[in-house]
# Entry
Amino acid sequence: MAASLNSSESDRSSLGGQSASSRSNNRSLRVAEKERRRNEAEDPFVLALKYFSVVEAGTPVVGNDDFENNLVLVERTAYSQGLSPEAISIMLEFAMSLRMGTAPCARVLKCLIPASVVPQEAVVRAAVWLSVGKIPISTQVLFIKWVLTVFDMIDAKDQLRAIYGFIFSFVTEENLCPFICHLLYLLTQKESVRVYRVRKLLELQSKLGRQPFLLHLLSLYKVFCPELVTLSIPSRMRGAFRNHVSPWKAALTAVQKRNGSLAGSSVSPALAVRDKSGSRKRKHCHLQLPALTSVASDGARSEQTSSRTLVPLAHLQSFDQLLKNVHRIELPAQMGSLLGSSVALQYLDCIQDESALLRLNFWLGCALHEEFLFCGDGATQTSEALQFLSRLLSAQHFLQEGFSSSDAFLYKFLNVWDGSLLRPQILCLLSNIPVIPSSQIRKLLFEPLTQLFFTSSLFFKCGLVECLNNMLLKWLTWHSVYALEDDLDISLNSHTSLNITLSGFKDSVMELIHFVGHLASVGLQLEGCHALLLSFVLDFYETVCDTFLKFGLPLVVMPPAGVFYPAFFATDPVSVDRLAHIMHRYKVNLTSAKRQEKQKEAFHISRQTFQEFNHCVVFMVNCLWNSRMFYPGSDVQPGEELLLGSGVPRYWASFDFIHHPAFVSYALDFHQKCWPSRKEMDLSSIKDSKPWSWYLDYLFSQGFDGLKDFLKSNISRQAAAVDEQQR
Amino acid sequence: MEQTNASVTRTPLDSVAVKRKSKSRSYRQSYRSCLGVASRLGLTPARRLTTNRKAPESHNITRQVNPEHLALLVKNEWQLAYVTPLHQFRHTQLRSYARHLSAFVVAEKQQGLAVEVSGLQNGFKASMTVVQGMSEADDDPETVLIQIHSKPLFSRPDDPQKLVWSGWLTCINGNPEYLHSLPKDFTCLPLFVYKGAENLSSLVKSWVQRTFDCCFGPLELSQTSLQWLAALWTNCHAESNIQHLRMLWTLPSAPPLQVTYAVDPHDVWELWGSVRKGSWGDGAGEARWIDLEEVASFMQSLKSHFYRHFKLDLSAGILNQVSTALGSARFNGRIKISNSAYVITTLTLLTECALLKMPI
# Structure
């Protein structure tokens, strides 16, 4: 009952919305209305309607010119601009009451094309006439077909639902049955499903055989009350009710188009027949999402219905419906089915019931285990697995987190994975793993990943580093959300059953960063500092260098030498530029942390971190700017004789802005542009103060913003000037 | 670190309930991804088969269990499967479940024909009953027997219905820690033992899956489980003659070599006695535990004996089947228990195997 009241209210409010503007200046409108009425009195169409509303019963049709003229008038209006609600009421009443016999009835019905809405009362009255008058069966069918066609334009359905039983009584009429079933399908609500109705339909089934219309109505009954009826629809009987009346529909759309309002009239209901995509016989079909079905609950049913009516999730088809019913949604029989529908996924986001989530996780875990871990014959159907994982990933992406059963699965799967099966999907799942306590992270994650990393191709290495970067990003984002809510000062332990404190979280993040640092150092060495891998590694450090400012995590970890030097000595300028950018961001983070440390002792950065950072910066500045590659205290200090013996001229300047392999082509280009007439190439001449600053400007103009920022923050103009004087 | 460990023993339900009031959206999210049971089991190291178990005692199970049920269990060979915990399963609702199952089977058999649930089905009739006495520990939910009777198509109306399918859902000595970690509305009957037509099996499975939102998977018997069974059965020889210990091995040669290895019961018994540590002889009471090491050395002696005679090392092969007069078990999860006295021991082992298969 509550449901029908609700729907009628909403219908009314939507009607109110339409006329809201007219309500504003009621008075003047009323005057205008009167005026209009007076004009209309002479309108032949209004007169025609009047004729049909007052015409007396028993008036002959044959040879009745009045009747003919008026009906033609109505028909013309109907086909050109549609009939108003009042006109529909009048004409329907005229036709169904058989005031002028059965002859004009069908003709009138055919022209009942609504301009806007169909008043519910008119339909109900007409339905009542069905049992009173002696309407020929073909006309009755025509009437029901008309109702089906205009069903979405009926302004409210509560009264129609109230006479559900009355309408139901017509199913025994053999010719009407298919159409009545369709109408009932559109009107059925949980309250209307009753044992005696089910029995009646089953009785009909035994009489008529397997009729799709009966089955589809019964399948809807099953959605509402699976404890009353059960059935399985064969896949060939997929098509729902085929009661399209094309001329009507065509006329209707034509009128609607002309009126500029295209109300979606979905006459054929979307029927949730289980999609058996994997219909070919498979031994294991764990990867099939279960269908959304409702729970059959015998014992608990009586009490539930008395307290409140629950809406099965399977019956909701749009987000609007979901919102309207969100307080009384009944979970489906199988939680796994939630992953299959986008509406259900929305609902999953608000489920807080532990059992429900556990059910989902049992299903998901079982599917993953059976398919990827337990399958002895290794006959994984890759296309299905791919589809399944993509669906899982899109669900996780929507919810912005993983499911615990898929995490548990991954911890096991990583030990047996060959690193190539469904790599993008598995890596993507992996990146959704939530924070792992640092005590377990090594065993669960690092040990299997290390093995995979060092035994796989370059592309896997890149993929893994990217995946770990995404994981770190998600962890940091997770933290930053909490940090914002909890004012940064409290531990996170009140949120999860994992009990991670802020320091515990920091430990985990640090472990992860060190782990990637280790992988990257060795990986770069193994792959000969491959530019692609280097690029992914630099991506990772772009995340790392900003942990404090971007994500509010008081942690600064420097890249290891194995990453820093390959990036610096890279032959492509992009890598060097990105390294410079990363160092610049480190500096910004560190200085801002230091400032905060002074203010409120937010967190302490170890002296060693500063030392590491300074070390890197001094090295970069000395190499690039000062042409002093080897200086006391640097990491690289080969013996003097060795350097002389190498035969490299001016070895100390090999990695300055001019001679660095990444920039030498720019230097040459600049040289040519600067001194086009010179025959001899003398790169050292760029070192002079004027061309030097031109050269830098030239470099910056090539888009090396990282270098620009780096130089700006690390070399003050005066220092530069002093430098030049020294030179 | 300590805190994480502490969380292992904490019941997440309680802690969660308290927090729910105070926390907003962010809390809920983490709640979903760090689900109590799941996270604990996901982070703890992999569960393993117990390394020592009680020696089988001949249970006088016949006194507790309906002899008809016992006869059914003993005389057939069964297929094994595992089931994840059943949601909203009530032992008190079995009658209505049976009605649903009957209707479901009939509806699936006659595609495109709706079936009234409460009506009498003339094609198939399912029944579900509790097997009284078929549980061991206090935490074990009671065993449920599912049977499907059918009338042959061209039979006289007064012909009795024939039993065409039967299956058990059971849990014997289930790991109490696991059973307790589940919320109250879950019933854990992890071991599913069934026999009958393949299509009926899959119908019953899919009905149980849909009704109690659980999942099925095949339960194979690992090498270790088979060796355990061999040892456990051998250990019973003193009380009930095992007649022979027969093992079927497959060796990975080309073409694959099948080896049937049958041992005289007295020899096996003596060998088993020689590998039994300490507790041998004093038979009574507390010392009757069998250790995995004993089982391993038992198997090793059997293998080395074989090697001495045939110069074939069975360690390279796969143990496919173990059988004695007490029962037989196959690698692919088919088992026959021939002596009702040792049903509990065998089912305890199988329950353990089934619980190991749980995804979380």
